[in-house]
Structures are given as structure tokens and as C-alpha cells.
Amino acid sequence: PRRQLIIHSQDSENGNDQEPTTSRGAADVVLPKEYTFSKSSRTFQLSIIEKIYNEVLKLESLERENQPYETTELWNSLHLNDVIKTSTNEVVNPFISILSFDKMMKLFGRMFHFLTADQKIELLSQLFLNLQNIDVIMKGSYKNYENSNYETPDEIIKKIDLFQMTILKCLVLYLSEANFSYVLTWLNTLV
After folding, report:
1. How many helices (H) and strands (E) in the chain?
2. Is the dihedral of CA 98, 94, 38, 137 positive or negative?
3. In order along the chain (191 residues), what is the average pLDDT of each group of 10 residues?
4. Helix H or strand E segment including 158
5. Which residues are paired to 91 by β-bridges?
6. pTM strictly above 0.85
7. Core vs surface per residue 159-181: b (16+ CB within 10 A) or e
8. Which of 31, 58, 94, 111 qualifies as a cystine partner to 79, CB 3.0-4.6 A?
9. Phi then psi for 20, rounded to 5 degrees?
10. CA angle 157, 161, 165 (to 5 degrees)
11. Among the listed residues 60, 62, 136, the one whose alpha carbon sits nearest the alpha carbon of residue 96
């Protein structure tokens, strides 16, 4: 497995201007203040994706070595129960907002594999409760293209296809194989 990178600014050598972030076991990741972002920024969203990606890589490494693993760090990196305000004062779930990135859509299946059954149900509930806020759903509506004879742009069609082939495929497969009591619990939260 790869070793974690510790980032230091020039001021860190003098002992100034550092904020420690999450502890990662053997090494602490230290980020300078200029790398702390507002929660509604694109950079914050990309940092969430990178955290998720790093956690998935760790878990895959542990799985390859047949070692036990804990999914708490992965679950926390999803920011599933957090909310952020956008520049238009809309309240959005950070996890829902990162689903607009291709990298996160492609990572979804690998990430979903490591979640426990309860975590999968919670994730599924959040997705369906916030369906109207998912970027692909909003941009994929034909109402947005009334002026262009209801022609959806090719880039949006590609995002929709990617969403269907990665996220929806994974969710439908899980629901078709899940314990019926979990499915009923999930349906209960939606109603």
C-alpha cells in the first residue's frame, strides 16, 4: 500500500500557519490554511471526492490482503448528513453535490461495495430524498430545452448515460439482491 503524503507549507518549517486535519493512523495529514475551503466551493467538493477516493484505495488494499477493515472513515468522508448553502442560498447535501462530477460517478460502485447494509440503506434514502437536487436529474429534464426543440445537448446525454451505467445500475442491483426487510425499511423512510 502507498504511504500517505504529508503536505507542509514553507511556514510549516517555522511552526506557523498550520491546521491539522483528520488523523490517518500512522501519519497525520497536515494542510496549510490556504487549503481550507468554503463548504460551497468547487474545491471543497473536489476535496471530498479525493477523501473518498483515498478511503476506497485503503479499503481495497486491505481487502486484497484479506485483512479486516472498518468503513467508518469512508462513511464520514461522504458528508452524507451535512448540508451546505450555495451562492443562491439553496441548502444542498455535499454528497449530492459531488455526484455531478464524472470521477465520483465512476467511483460510486467501488465505494458502495464497502458500505454496510445499514449505510447502503441510508445512502439510498438520501439519494432518493434529494433526487431533485442531483445535477444530472436537473439538467436532464426536457423542460430545460423547450427553446431548442427539446433536444438535449450531447454532453448532458453523456452524463445521463454515465449516471445510469454507474450509480443507477449499482443501486438497482443492490435493491434486487437486498434483504426484503432492508428494502421495506428504505421504502418506509421515503413515505
Report:
1. 10, 4
2. positive
3. 54 45 40 45 87 95 93 92 71 85 94 92 88 85 77 87 93 88 78 70
4. helix 154-163
5. 85
6. no
7. bbeebeebbeebbeebeeebeee
8. 94
9. -70, 145
10. 175
11. 136
